[in-house]
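$ ./design --mode recover --in tokens.txt
reading tokens...
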């Protein structure tokens, strides 16, 4: 595409986003609305925002990379498990909102539940995760600009970073969710048009016959064990961790109307799965067509396929699709980082009742500027998006069981939480990066831990939907069923083994230390009293937030006018 066309598309896309943000901005911004939009977002906006946030440019690129690497089963493993993990959020999400109806971050809730160290572990992991996510999205956008326009990679990431920052800075989270609605319409529409066009332009159904010679036996096998162990299984573990520990997801959980949580996440499940599996087929088409990624960089695969097979008009549509997908997640990362610094750093430092709302908003905006600057710096490095996603997900894996247990089990202590997470990370790192020799007894020991991790993952999934008894049965049965083939094998797959070890160690240590606590019981009602609004000034709700919920988590009475406007009732 020519330079003027690219600039015009940038102005149209980010200009529209800026207009939306400015229409909802206020001279005196409400701090709580800047973080969670008052906790009363309606179904349409919340489900679109959840879908758009989960469908980021990096996930599109990674799905295509998976298809190109593992064949047709690659996008299925990537998209299906990611979609199921969105579905998994809602049962835990309803419990989280029940005990913390007016919270802003998961770390804030952990401070109320345990104390400073647990809060810092969650906040720190999310700061790291959101910076990496920002970086990955800028890399995806830079590759797109470099491939499809006369502008360079560096010019591309600077322009994208500036555009995202410009509209998000105005109204924070509200700007993020409202622009998500527009962005998800572009993304879904583009996928429906672009994938079939590329498929038939590349050869259509005959391609599967003429291009079969380009595939290995594993790539042509729909039930490929290589695809499962290297892509599917690690992603099941990683995305479960994203679902529970990621502040961008938690922020939408705290923002959506409580009675719409299930409906929102079920809708997002189907939207994400269909889109990501569809876009991943670009990688499969490239594999059958014998395409070699430009500069041997799989990050170039999607824009390369678009440039090869799309007409100029569809290329513009594709461009907007990718820019929209990366913007929807990048602005979510910026607002997540702003909320963490506002609520978990400044808010906890001065106290909720003494916080200055105007200063909080200023701190949030400064955080966004610093974060985007850091992401620009790291985007200049040569990073593989798929590795980044799995790595961050595995880090959050150490937090999954301690976080979930803390919302249900009144005996979990701050020591149990903190020691479990640190111990899991201490064993995850050497396994993930092969720092130790896995031969002999050492490999078997880690295989046993990883096998226990399999049981933990399936037990947590079952617990969310069916409760403790079913979860225990599922965990024990899946561990015993996996043991005969997993022990002696899993240590050969560093990514999968590291993630599973992280799950098992955090669970074992957390349970063991919690069982030693026979006296102190936590009253979950304390969380609702400890967490709450920082700003007592009224603020207008988002368009779909005006209709009050039939009842909130504090009783069976309808929400008061003060609750709808963002105040405590």
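writing sequence...
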């Amino acid at each position: 595409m020519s330079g003027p066309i690219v600039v015009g598309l940038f102005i149209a896309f980010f200009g529209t986003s800026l207009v939306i943000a400015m229409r909802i901005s206020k001279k005196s911004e409400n701090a709580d609305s800047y973080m969670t939009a008052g906790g009363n977002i309606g179904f349409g906006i919340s489900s679109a925002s959840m879908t758009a946030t989960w469908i980021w440019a990096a996930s599109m690129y990674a799905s295509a990379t998976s298809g190109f690497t593992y064949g047709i089963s690659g996008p299925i493993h990537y998209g299906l498990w990611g979609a199921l993990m969105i579905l998994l959020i809602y049962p835990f999400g309803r419990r989280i909102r029940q005990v913390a109806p007016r919270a802003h971050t998961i770390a804030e809730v952990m401070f109320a539940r345990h104390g400073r160290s647990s809060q810092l572990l969650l906040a720190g992991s999310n700061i790291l995760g959101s910076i990496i996510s920002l970086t990955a999205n800028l890399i995806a956008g830079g590759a797109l600009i470099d491939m499809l326009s006369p502008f360079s990679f560096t010019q591309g990431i600077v322009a994208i970073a500036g555009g995202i920052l410009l509209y998000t800075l105005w109204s924070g989270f509200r700007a993020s969710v409202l622009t998500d609605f527009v962005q998800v319409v572009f993304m879904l529409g583009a996928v429906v048009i672009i994938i079939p066009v590329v498929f038939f332009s590349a050869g259509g159904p005959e391609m599967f016959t003429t291009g079969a010679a380009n595939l290995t036996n594993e790539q042509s096998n729909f039930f490929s064990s290589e695809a499962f162990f290297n892509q599917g299984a690690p992603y099941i573990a990683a995305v479960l961790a994203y679902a529970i520990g990621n502040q961008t997801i938690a922020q939408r959980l705290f923002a959506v109307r409580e009675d719409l949580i299930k409906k929102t996440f079920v809708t997002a499940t189907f939207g994400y799965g269909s889109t990501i599996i569809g876009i991943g087929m670009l990688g499969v088409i490239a594999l059958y067509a014998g395409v070699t990624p430009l500069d041997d960089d799989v990050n170039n695969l999607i824009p390369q396929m678009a440039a090869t097979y799309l007409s100029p008009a569809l290329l513009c549509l594709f461009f907007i699709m990718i820019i929209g997908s990366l913007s929807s997640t990048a602005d979510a990362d910026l607002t997540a980082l702003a909320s963490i610094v506002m609520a978990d750093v400044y808010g906890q430092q001065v106290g909720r009742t003494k916080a200055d709302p105007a200063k909080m908003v200023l701190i949030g905006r400064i955080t966004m500027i610093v974060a985007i600057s850091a992401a620009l710096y790291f985007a200049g490095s040569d990073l593989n998006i798929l590795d980044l996603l799995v790595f961050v997900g595995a880090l959050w894996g150490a937090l999954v069981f301690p976080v979930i247990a803390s919302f249900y089990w009144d005996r979990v202590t701050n020591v149990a939480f903190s020691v479990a997470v640190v111990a899991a990370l201490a064993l995850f790192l050497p396994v993930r990066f092969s720092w130790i020799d896995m031969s002999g007894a050492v490999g078997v020991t880690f295989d046993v831990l990883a096998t226990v991790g399999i049981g933990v993952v399936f037990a947590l999934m079952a617990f969310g939907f069916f409760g403790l008894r079913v979860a225990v049965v599922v965990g024990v049965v899946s561990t015993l069923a996996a043991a005969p083939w997993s022990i002696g094998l899993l240590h050969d797959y560093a990514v999968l083994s590291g993630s599973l070890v992280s799950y098992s160690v955090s669970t074992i240590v957390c349970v063991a230390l919690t069982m030693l606590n026979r006296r102190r019981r936590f009253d979950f009602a304390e969380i609702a009293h400890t967490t709450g609004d920082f700003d007592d000034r009224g603020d207008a709700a988002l368009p779909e937030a005006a209709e009050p919920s039939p009842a909130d988590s504090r009783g069976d009475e309808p929400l008061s006018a003060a609750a709808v406007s963002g105040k405590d009732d």
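exit 0
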